[in-house]
Amino acid sequence: MNRLIQRMKNELSDVYAADELESVVRILLSHYLKLSPAEACLREKAFSAKELDGLQDAIRLLKQHCPVQYVTGETEFYGLRFKVTPDVLIPRPETEELTEMIVRRFQARTSASALPLKILDIGTGSGCMAVALAAALPSAEVWAMDISQPALEVAAHNAALNRVQVHFVRGDILSATAALLFPAERFDIIASNPPYVTQEDKQFMHERVCRYEPHQALFPGSHPLIFYEHIALFAQQQLKPQGYLYLEINEALPHLTADILKRQRFRQVTLRKDMREKWRFIEATNSV
């Protein structure tokens, strides 16, 4: 078995740095052999041709820079399992941080209040944030919106996989009529990780991202803050009085993004850093 692990590392050493390589090998062993690396090293039974063929097919795709999450078709987010396909972004640790920020603030409130929190996730993609919030705040009513029907199908699968209820709505937040999708709802929380990668950022991105992940979910086009402008206007209409808006943002544009919310009369617009000390989040409250 040690020889198999070493062969995998040798074949992928040109694709991954040493620290990434260890993680990728663990993922492959877990997915294709249903074993941890330690268990795999102790296994005496020979591996089947099917198991070895699966590993070799995976290595071939990885050598073409396909993300390991798309190769296995799954990933972990906030302690939950999620299906991922090239129709959705691979959930990032930063979005996990944003989810935890919301859970920390509202977990006690959901236990104490008789009224359920109403939460909307805009641009839900795989559904990672909406599903994780529904799982962590089980008394909350969670909605999730996306323009992509294939993404919504993946998200619905993930809600079922993790046994939570999320109301999925197809819609375009850039549309002037987006608010009409929720005529009877006002939300306590609106959260979003919208497209925010600029063309300048693109040149520094890894091939695995640019080549395989959906550009519609990454790049906002020529106007890097267009989604924030539309989300701010939408949230001003759809949040309850004193409702909260949570956004993941481009680390290079924190103050410009915050200014958009201030112009829409949001209060207590607070920039927050991620675990790498980069400006990554905004928390704001509705002034209406």
* Low-pLDDT windows of residues: none
Q: Tell me the distance between the termini.
A: 63 Å
CATH-defined topology of the largest domain: Rossmann fold
The main pleated sheet reads as: 7 strands, mixed
Question: What is the count of helical runs?
Answer: 13
| Derived structural class | alpha/beta
Q: Care to describe what's here?
A:
The protein has 288 residues and is of the alpha/beta class. The model has no long low-confidence stretch (mean pLDDT 92). It has helices at 2-12, 18-33, 37-42, 49-63, 68-72, 93-112, 128-136, 149-161, 199-202, 207-212, 215-218, 226-238, 254-263, and strands at residues 74-77, 80-83, 118-122, 141-146, 167-170, 187-192, 239-248, 267-273, 279-285. It is globular.
List the helices and strands and how they pair.
Blueprint: H1 2-12, H2 18-33, H3 37-42, H4 49-63, H5 68-72, E1 74-77, E2 80-83, H6 93-112, E3 118-122, H7 128-136, E4 141-146, H8 149-161, E5 167-170, E6 187-192, H9 199-202, H10 207-212, H11 215-218, H12 226-238, E7 239-248, H13 254-263, E8 267-273, E9 279-285
Parallel strand pairs: 3-4, 3-6, 4-5, 6-7
Antiparallel strand pairs: 1-2, 7-9, 8-9
Helix pairs in contact: 2-4, 6-7
Task: Write a concise keyword list for the protein shown above.
46% helix; 18% strand; seven-stranded mixed β-sheet; Rossmann fold; 2 domains; 13 helices; globular; 288 residues
Quick structural gist:
The protein has 288 residues and is α/β, with parallel strands linked by helices.
